[in-house]
Design brief:
By secondary structure, this protein is an alpha/beta fold. The protein has twelve helices and 15 strands. Bound molecules: (2S)-amino(hydroxy)ethanoic acid and manganese (II) ion (3 copies). It holds the Pfam family Peptidase_M20.
Length: about 425
């Protein structure tokens, strides 16, 4: 496959302007974004993305999970398209680049090919996957998961947010439910550009992460039940404090993850305390333990020890405990051919690069099950993400998108 000429570059100013324009939609309270899935802000961001894609001459597609597809024709319309994309939805206290860089980086490829008057053999399709973050409607990577056959559409439609609103109803309400069957599209390959969301690339002084693997993840919902009681008049020995039980279990989550240092991680980001009243001892706590590791055996060990330690603590404190596996996926090895295209592009362009394992989950982790897939990463400042202070440099955005451009165009063949 002919590689693009070494001097071909995307338009970094135009990319940055688009990132800043998208960031104006669903602003956070501290300089980041709150553009949660299936909100009016999400709908506004989708409309802006669609307007840009149509202006770039793309034909738009939309499936029954609201996944968006912007297609640029190739010289061989029968050739399977090369897909490139990520997600436009954000965390409630999200940054401006998580997911968005991958979608708008894909659009920048189209815009650059238009500037250069280049037609690829394979069509190219820029993709926005619905609800990658999974905050409002758990689990994360929901729609790419349906696309890859990991969840049924009915199960996804029935997911409810904290107010009891259903995913399927909200998708209908914002007007972004398409007609296409989810997953019917066949891909020649899929590429995703994403910020690292960790400190490695910046610390190593590398512009590009060649993502060889995605670590596996496990979400276990834990319900600890004690007894609501008065915080003032209930003697300490009589208390069955579910909140204290959770605290002791979370200490064990930390210890379990650290016992598999340096790669394993563990924490609980979602915690619901009932009745959550200042002067009532919590009678019930529901929290989700997030364990991750590049090794499946380590994840399985952490899951087992969570149960052992959780049951021990519950018995000691006269509490009840229940565990439910509510999501996750095994470690992912990306397609060597596509990873090679990413690495060749970084070398051809002279960008410093290193192999890296993705700490975060991405749509690519599910799509890798149905198409040859690879990811390219750029650094982020202090490795910070899922925080409104998330920041990248314009040069990092351009370098990552240059590599994405070269890998996609080489795979789509000119
Ligand atoms: O959970 C994740 O790793 C992703 O950010 N949704
Ligand atoms: Mn993301
Ligand atoms: Mn994210
Ligand atoms: Mn081909």
């Amino acid at each position: 496959m002919a590689a693009p000429a070494q001097n071909l570059r995307i338009n970094g100013d135009r990319l940055w302007d688009s990132l800043m324009d998208m960031a104006k939609i669903g602003p956070g309270v501290a300089g980041g974004n709150n553009r949660q899935t299936l909100t009016d802000e999400d709908a506004e961001g989708r409309a802006l993305f669609q307007k840009w894609c149509e202006a770039a001459g793309c034909e738009m597609g939309l499936d029954q999970m609201g996944n968006m597809f912007a297609r640029r024709e190739g010289t061989d319309p029968d050739a399977l398209p090369v897909y490139v994309g990520s997600h436009l939805d954000t965390q409630p206290t999200g940054g401006k680049y998580d997911g968005v860089l991958g979608v708008l980086g894909g659009l920048e490829i189209i815009r650059t090919l238009n500037d250069l008057g280049i037609k690829t053999k394979h069509p190219i399709v820029v993709t926005n996957f619905t609800n990658e973050e999974g905050t409002r409607f758990a689990p994360a990577m929901l729609s790419s998961g349906v696309f890859a056959g990991m969840h049924t559409q009915d199960w996804a439609y029935a997911r409810e947010d904290a107010e009891g609103k259903r995913f399927g109803d909200e998708l209908e309400r914002i007007g972004w439910k398409g007609a296409e069957e989810v997953g019917a599209r066949k891909m020649h390959a899929f590429f995703e550009l994403h910020i690292e969301q960790g400190p490695i690339l910046e610390a190593e002084g590398k512009d590009i992460g060649v993502v060889t693997h995605g670590q596996g993840l496990s979400w276990t919902q834990v319900t600890v039940t004690g007894k609501d009681a008065h915080t003032g008049s209930t003697p300490m020995p009589m208390r069955r404090n579910a909140g204290l039980g959770m605290a002791r279990i979370l200490e064990q989550v930390e210890a379990i993850a650290l016992s598999h240092a340096p790669h394993a991680v563990g924490a609980a980001g979602h915690i619901d305390v009932y009745p959550n009243s200042r002067n009532v001892i919590p009678g019930k706590v529901v929290f989700t333990v997030d364990f991750r590791s590049p090794e499946l055996s380590v994840i399985e060990d952490m899951e087992a020890r969570l149960k052992t330690e959780g049951r021990r603590i519950a018995d000691e404190m006269g509490l009840e405990i229940a565990f439910e596996k509510v999501g996750g996926f095994d470690p992912v090895a990306f397609d060597e051919g596509c990873v090679g295209a990413i690495r060749n592009a970084a070398e051809r362009l002279g960008y410093s690069h290193m192999n890296i394992i993705s700490g975060a989950g991405h749509d690519a982790c599910w799509i890798n099950r149905v198409a040859p897939t690879a990811m390219v990463m750029c650094p982020c400042v202090d490795g910070l993400s899922h925080n409104e202070a998330e920041e990248i440099s314009k040069d990092w955005a351009s370098a990552g998108t240059d590599v994405l451009f070269h890998a996609v165009v080489e795979t789509a063949e000119i």
